[in-house]
Specification:
With about 180 residues, the protein is mainly α. It has five helices and three strands. The longest helix is centred in the N-terminal third of the chain and has 38 residues.
Length: about 180
């Protein structure tokens, strides 16, 4: 009797451990697959994408805020008489976007909630990254020595924190909506 009880309890503990690891392991696998796909895209192709959806809108906003900058776009770079800022692989917000998309895809919820989360999450990352790039342009222009710490530490950490808060809020709201 004692060994049957021990086996039963061990199976329950093992089952809970497996359940507890399901989300992070699934997240890791999906993120890794996105990462492999991302790095299979040629740099030249990414430069064209950056030009269209990151650099051109950033230049438009900068020129709207401060027309005297007269920022032009050249391939994947913002260029003016006071700054040259290139958007390259790793500075495009895709890493965080892949992370939030992976988390939403592996989270156990309805397709409707996943689609809402994906659209909202991708939109959030896109807007935050545009704000980051525009902000970095102004840092280069007005406080060049702040560029490295803001670019390497502050901005990425802030974006990851905001996206984590978004995911927690979305997951909580999704779970609350499905329990009703």
């Amino acid at each position: 009797m004692h060994s049957n009880l021990s086996t039963y309890l061990l199976n329950i503990k093992t089952s809970k451990v497996i359940q507890g690891l399901k989300f992070p392991l699934s997240l890791f696998v999906v993120y890794a697959l996105f990462h492999i796909l991302y790095f299979s895209i040629a740099d030249k192709t990414l430069a064209q994408i950056y030009h269209a959806i990151v650099v051109t809108p950033s230049a438009s906003v900068i020129n709207f805020i401060l027309p005297s900058e007269q920022v032009i776009v050249s391939q994947n770079a913002l260029i003016s008489s006071r700054a040259h800022l290139e958007v390259v692989r790793g500075c495009d917000g895709i890493g965080v976007m892949m992370l939030i998309v992976s988390a939403i895809l592996v989270f156990s919820t309805s397709l409707k909630h996943k689609i809402t989360g994906l659209v909202s999450g991708v939109g959030l990352v896109y807007v935050l990254n545009l704000i980051r790039i525009i902000g970095l342009y102004f840092v280069v222009v007005f406080q060049r020595d702040w560029f490295l710490p803001i670019h390497s530490y502050f901005a990425p950490t802030l974006i990851i924190l905001l996206c984590s808060l978004f995911f927690m809020h979305w997951a909580f709201m999704t779970s609350a909506n499905e329990s009703h």
